[in-house]
From TrEMBL:
One Pfam family this sequence matches: MFS_1
Record protein name field: MFS general substrate transporter
A single GO cellular-component term on record: membrane
Mode of membrane association: Multi-pass membrane protein
GO MF assignments: transmembrane transporter activity
Lineage: Eukaryota, Fungi, Dikarya, Basidiomycota, Agaricomycotina
Locations listed in the record: Membrane
Domain Major facilitator superfamily (MFS) profile: 61-486
InterPro entries per the UniProt record, alphabetical: MFS, MFS_dom, MFS_trans_sf, Tet-R_TetA/multi-R_MdtG-like
TM segment ranges: 100-122, 134-152, 191-214, 234-256, 290-316, 336-355, 367-389, 395-419, 463-482
Length: 501
């Protein structure tokens, strides 16, 4: 078909404009309106997708990917109930409980700091060699890391163990790419609705495993009687988490069928990403070609959400475990695990029952904005709950926090769908998710260390009566509504048609 050449300026941010390039050309017929590609044009020339009957989801493939996703929240969050106690027992702080936050935040950040170095390369590698081998490497690395963490008896051994996991793990980005391979625009809301559900289940099981099986010689003295369990009191929860990873290696090996078609694996490379709006479009090169307006805007919003989430994850165990005199609730690790488990259970049930319905009713943008707003309310409730610590009203505050977190978790499913739609083409989906996970890993590396350190600084210097960290995060959540409001009402059209072979 003959195609007239239309030139789009860089300022036309509604299209897939390369932010670092000169004006680019798109082969398209103005008369045809790109007929047959499953899209229409609105009055501004921006193309949006037609609604159609949902394509059936590939159940076994999705089940495998969702099971793989369980490993990361289990391995990363199982340490939360006992990490502060572990830091205290290693005598790193010299007996000063106010300094625990510095070191706990550092340990929690290390995984994401090291992951940021390699996750983009894992994503690009999955575009070349397929998702399956990269997933297996990540799962194996996570399992070895957990075993090493459980056997660590020095601060630097903990550092090395967490670093191993981050360096070898690119699974979240690759798994999301596989989900993008397995779904299309007609059923993506249904498929991605399951991701927060599974993450919530993992976020439930991780703290429950850590809180229940830490120090088993004390909790189950009739079973764990040897000197080994006294010397390594946190090895059992690490062993259980590592076993989940090893089991998933076998699941991927024998059940999962490679989701990236061979021709797409051939077309994607480290040096060239072929981007198409029609059948003929000039290729874009490497990382520079990924920096389109949709990708940058989507990743920016994902980063703000991740910062708020990881800051909560780092702060809550501190808030719950610290003495009441310095603004905490003085809970034991087992109780912290049960509370985090309740949070995960509620989030999972809510996502499973309502996410896809809410997305179809309100759209990804509105759901994401509501999720960010919910985090502002969560951080406002921390000091209120601290004030009533030790009374029945503390449970009212904690319940309100959990309910708001269930609402905020829907923002993750929303932004995942938006990022998938923002990819320049399906051949670059792994690289796009790798780029997003690189940004998120950097943010998540900063978040725990920053929030936990700010907790200690606020308490030590009595900033806003010790509640300065919550005021700062509340302000950040409010400011995060600005980029959230810039997201499109309608998703960008996928560069490759959904029914392309």
């Amino acid at each position: 078909m003959a195609a007239s050449i239309q030139t789009r300026e860089v300022s036309d941010v509604n299209e897939r404009t390369h932010l670092l390039s000169q004006p680019i050309t798109y082969g398209a017929s103005a008369e045809s309106g790109l007929a047959g590609d499953g899209s229409d044009s609105d009055t501004s020339g921006r193309r949006v997708r037609k609604k159609r009957a949902p394509t059936p989801l590939p159940v076994l493939q999705l089940f495998t990917m969702l099971t793989v996703q369980l490993v990361e929240p289990i391995t990363s969050m199982s340490i939360y109930p006992y990490i502060n106690q572990l830091i205290s027992e290693l005598d790193i702080t010299g007996g000063d409980e106010r300094r625990v936050g510095y070191y706990a935040g550092l340990i929690e950040s290390l995984f994401f700091a090291t992951e940021a170095v390699t996750v983009l390369h894992w994503g690009r590698l999955s575009d070349r060699i397929g998702r399956k081998p990269v997933l297996m490497i990540g799962l194996f690395g996570a399992s070895i890391s957990m075993l090493s963490f459980g056997l660590a008896r020095t601060f630097w051994a903990l550092v090395v163990a967490r670093s191993i996991s981050g360096l070898l793990n690119g699974n979240i980005g690759v798994m999301k790419s596989a989900m993008g391979d397995l779904t299309d625009s007609s059923n993506r809301a249904d498929g991605f609705a399951l991701l927060p559900v599974v993450w919530s289940f993992g976020a439930t099981m991780g703290p429950l495993i850590g809180g229940t099986f830490a120090r088993p010689h004390e909790r189950f003295p009739m079973v764990f009687t040897g000197e080994f369990w006294i010397k390594y009191p946190y090895f059992l929860p690490c062993l259980i988490a590592a076993s989940c990873g090893f089991a998933c290696v076998l699941l991927v090996l024998f059940v999962f069928t490679e989701s990236a078609p061979p021709k797409k694996r051939r077309s994607a490379s480290y040096d060239s990403l072929e981007t198409r709006v029609s059948s003929k479009q000039p290729p874009v090169n490497g990382l520079r070609g990924l920096l389109t307006y949709p990708v940058v805007l989507s990743v920016t919003n994902y980063a703000t959400l991740a910062f708020l989430n990881i800051s909560f994850n780092a702060l809550f165990p501190l808030f719950a475990s610290m003495p009441r005199e310095i603004g905490g609730l003085e809970f034991q690790p087992s109780r912290i695990g049960y509370i985090l488990g309740a949070y995960g259970t509620l989030c999972g049930a809510y996502q499973y029952l309502y996410f896809s319905k809410i997305i179809r009713r309100f759209g990804e943008r509105k759901v994401f904005i509501c999720g960010i707003a919910a985090y502002a309310c969560v951080f406002a409730l921390f000091p209120a709950t601290s004030i009533v610590a030790g009374t029945k009203w503390q449970w009212v505050g904690l319940s309100a926090i959990i309910v708001l977190l269930a609402l905020s978790d829907m923002a993750f499913g929303s932004i995942m769908i938006i990022i998938t739609a923002s990819a320049p083409c399906k051949a670059s989906l792994g690289a796009t998710n790798g780029l997003s996970q690189t940004a998120i890993s950097i943010i998540r590396a900063i978040g725990p260390a920053f929030s936990a350190s700010m907790f200690s600084v606020s308490v030590e210097n009595n900033i806003l009566y010790g509640y300065g960290v919550y005021a700062l995060l509340f302000t950040f959540a409010i400011l995060s509504l600005i980029p959230a409001s810039m997201l499109p009402v309608e998703l960008w059209e996928e560069a490759d048609s959904d029914d392309e072979d």
